[in-house]
User: Fold these one by one.
Assistant:
Number 1:
Amino acid sequence: MINNNKKKILRKALSDRLEELSHIFLGQDKGSSEFSDVKDFEECLRLVIVKYYPKIKSGSFTQEEKKKYFNLLSGLAIKALGDDYRILDAFNNAYEIIIKIEWDSVDQKEYIIPFFRIYKYLLSHHLKNI
Amino acid sequence: MVVIGLYDYFSDAVGLLHELERKSGINLYILFCNNFNSSPVRFYLKHLRRFLGLSFRDKIIIARLLIKKRLVMSIKSIHNSNVLLWIKKIKPDIGLHCTGAIYRKSLISLFRLGILNSHIGILPRYRGRSVMEWSILNGDPTGITAFFIDEGIDTGRDIIFTEKVDLKGLNSIKSAKEFLFNYRTKIFVKTISLLLKGNYKFQKNEVEKGLRYYVMSDLLKGVVEEIFKSEKK
């Protein structure tokens, strides 16, 4: 159970992260109705964090692995709206590594901007609901 | 009781050596394997550097174990057939899990009672990584669980005991985590004593009652650090 003190600290952290994101031009924001969902989110979460995240982090990923990572991650978006912070944290982790990598324009368009849009929506949603 | 401590580093093993090396009823072995697949030169240099960093007293203990052939180093991984053969020859009762490796059944089955883990979270609720931090975030107790592992991540069925550990006296998340990691040695010693006396009753690790947690992001780590500090006030 997250008490009021924790909520305040969490709200400040999410708000700061959202502020960081606001400096990135994302075009039109994506609404939650456009999010996809997965059946087995526990397995999806495991694959995102255990299998693909280390590859992205080390920069040793193939095109296929990159595609899989972002697809699986976006498949977690609906679940990330809930109060299980493990899922939102997969997006936090992704953001923290994505901003350290130089992506080409194709990747930017195909993966990074859509990810940022989803992430921005998730942060706004949680800020409203904390 | 034959015990093999499965370690990655000397520095992690010395605490256990002080506690168990001369304890009656315990035949202690320490096994270091190359679970990170380093080159042989790198592997030995890493260990030499760690050895040189030890106190004189700790060096003596390590040297004594080496002479008695109770400290074994292998440049192969723990699942290498020669390593498995050595373990089989020793006929261990218990293994102590202190490596970064995930064990296969072929290894676990070589230990009569199994391989013990001293997990820095409360099972069955908190499996996986960063569990101390997740417990603090969720407002749950922090602590350690001693259990026999299986091939999964903290899914081993038999819990020997769980101990809640209050971390409020510590200054930061880093120091709290270090404290818990060091405390694991005490938990191993306590567990072995219970097993020697037969004074225990397994509690079932009902994995369906818990969740697997993963490495926490910098954002949430920052949140947990602030929560931790604010709750000390």
Note: The helical segments of chain A are 4-22, 41-58, 63-75, 77-80, 85-98, 105-129.
Number 2:
Amino acid sequence: MSTTAVDAKSALKAQFPAVTDRASLDWPAVNVPVAEVVAALKYLRDTLGFDTLTDLTAVDWAEGASPRFTVVYHLYSTVHPGYFRVATDCPDDAEPAVPTVVELWPAANWHERECYDLLGVKFTGHPDLRRILMWEGYPYHPLRKEFPLAGIEVPLPDAEIAAETGTKVLPAPMAGGPFVASPGEINLTEAEPRAKDESWNERKAKPE
Amino acid sequence: MVSPNTELAYNSKIEGEVVVTRADAAINWIRTNSMWPMPMGLACCAIELMAVAASRFDIARFGAEVMRFSPRQSDCMIVAGTVTYKMATAVRRIYDQMAEPKWVIAMGACASSGGMYRSYATLQGVDRIIPVDVYVSGCPPRPEALLDALMKLQAKVRKEHSAKNLLSA
């Protein structure tokens, strides 16, 4: 049980020949085929001591890329402190789906719901795969690359209140691009969140 | 011979224990000095809102210290924080449950305009779903700024034609 994180990688590769190395700047990382991902994670948890799932997320490699979605698991070991990263490519680019790991880590439940909500990756076998941040019935997955930051016009979540107020979910005015703070700025007035490109706004068109 | 009136204050012997005023003035005086807030704390502005209620800034000096978490017992909704579209429907529903007369303070940049959250998830100003009386700038505003907003709202309420509105309702 007292293997180090690097040993764990060779042990995993010995157990699962289809596992390949993944470029990483910090902790050991591997690519695992989607058919073996649950078995590999179970092996990492039970045999190699990576007992904690610290994060579960996905990467969108943008429209046209194949594989388009990669699900990434970040594991932590309390036995021999260290992290381990497992990535698996979703086989279908249009309807990405991977098996759930809720049976291995109950903590994966909300992570997978968030991943489904924001990126549209389905987790087959998940006990309760509903949206967690956006409201039920929202038609898009906002963290996908083709989704604009400002949003897309849709009705308000509540039809009664939409009728009462006559308002909708509208794209946010993005004049000057995203409004971000300048953390390194000494002048506090300049450090306030603001558009970084003030050459255009709602009334003045963006220069080409 | 008419003697000059030197009585500057109320004298029950002269007035016969009657105070004369206008209905508007009396109603507005009552309303301005016990404006119970509905603390709609949605983000970091709510922390400043708590500071306003605490001893250093003490919103009790203006008669608005009774933060009611029931909309049916409050007069003034203080929207303190970022209003997401998912929360917006709840904010509107709570506003609808407040009894008349009711007022709204939009506290901070997010509640007033969406603030820095120019994003798909954020309502760009709470005035798109409920009528706002006073906007407070700041991210978050200082407690003094919220006290100033309350005083501005009180000044606004003092000018309302309350008696006429009550009789015509």
Note: The longest strand of chain A covers residues 52-60.
Number 3:
Amino acid sequence: MNITRRHFLVLLPAAALAWEHVLAGTPELSSNYNTSDHWWGMLVDIEKCIGCGSCVRACAKENNVPDGYYRTWIERYRIKEVNGLETLEVDSPDGGKNGFPSSDEPGVKQFFVPKMCNHCADSPCTQVCPVGATFVSPDGVVLIDEKYCLGCRYCIQACPYGCRFLHPEKNVAQKCTLCYHRITQGLTTACCENCPTGARQLADLKNPKDPIHEFLRTHKVQVLKPHLATQAKLYYNGLDGAVR
Amino acid sequence: MKFKDATHLFRLAGVFAAGLLLFVALRSFLVPKSFGQYGHFRGDALADIKAQPVHYAGHEACESCHSDVLDQKVKGKHVRVNCEACHGPLATHAEDPGGITPEKLDTAKLCVRCHEANTAKPKWFPQVVSADHSAGLACNECHQPHNPVIVAEEKTASAGEGPKPAPANKGAKK
């Protein structure tokens, strides 16, 4: 076969494209979700949370969370003065799944704090896993490989936020996956989808069009336990300093 | 100096080499191919986690058929309350609209989840003491859940059979 230099140069880009196509695999099989294009986090606006428990119920249904265990839960803080000292009472009946009973106490500051995995970028729980069963995914979600987890509970103790539990039947550690099966197909998480006041918002920190960037610029948000330098990505707006 | 009886050292080296070979062979057999693809974990775990079924279809799926409800919602305060927050998980219905019909909802239980007065709720949020507010009437006797404001004209138009006038916000907090 005779190929002139001119022909060779013309064919070269076409061949490169064809080779890239071969490497990429069948288009129908490879999804258009690219892990390196995302860096997930969440924003919780304390001033909007009404403690209705929709997020807790939605999470339990979406992820088949066993009764009595919570991947997300709501805490009610009550700060009052007793003998001139500020005292703190925190309750979370059934994780706040069915809301909270009203408590009419004068002079008590009360508010709700939804909690869940903070999806730390530098997470203590992933560092202690002896088998590489829990990890930070390339798109910033802390996940558990249930096939690899031994159920040693080390990560459950390592999590400073108490966000992990041992599944009573599967005997593997479980936690919030940030609804990884939903966010990778363009949906929002079950808790965000069902929050009636928009107190929870999924945030893609790598997407320049995400409203989170504007919010972070104009608000003074906080994370829980910043002194632990876990690089938590669960941002709270309007958080009282008393919240642990 | 010359090594005498060095054969046992060669034998030992042989055992080590065989052990190393066995280790490498076993390792390549036991460690999954995708381990280390992204980091110190099984890369295929991401696909496993992604494969979990979705229960909540998301409001875009609902709105693609029920655009009439969306038209009502955009006029009212419930515009940002997504469908499944009240109607429950309905991904099965979104996939098979004819086969699976959503249950009818009980507004008497549903509305108070959010709107029952609670001192810990933020002050801006509309709250009522349900026992005082509606005198036992179901919420949707007066309020249309997709656009909950009570419009006077609507009341007079259907005064014959339906909604009774609201008890003038009695028991309403703020």
Note: Residues 54-103 of chain B form one domain.
